[in-house]
Amino acid sequence: MTSDKKAEAQAFLKAHNVGMLATVGADGKPRASIVHYVSDEHFNIYFLTLFASRKFAAMRANPAVAFTIGAREIPQTIQMEGAASELTHADEKKEHITELMKVLTSNSTYYAPLMKLDPSEIVMMWIKPTWVRWGDYASLESGSDNIFTEIPIS
Description:
This protein is an alpha+beta fold. The protein contains four helices and seven strands. Helix content is about 25%, strand content about 40%.
């Protein structure tokens, strides 16, 4: 893998702010939901949800999650697997909350749905990836080896 591919994947991740979170509930049933997120240079994902949500309950029961971001305009995607946990340390939360608030209030017509809910019911979550795959279908070359790149996570 070239560092160019990792840089492309990182730029794609930073250029977007909505992804699909997949979880498995305590009942073994799959769940999927859209979340607004921010990320860091290690492909960690940070987002907010409600304590009373099904997704929070699912992540507490089984922290293994999958997360995907895709784009239609330029066919590219990042697929991730990892572990979700609640971010509880105030300094860590502060580091990402300002950026998250910008994302959640960036639409000039409508704010993200979470912005209409009671802040005391909101929890910040962190996904630490264990596997990341960059898919660049806009690549000039064909073939799976040219489309998909596994990004090493350190």
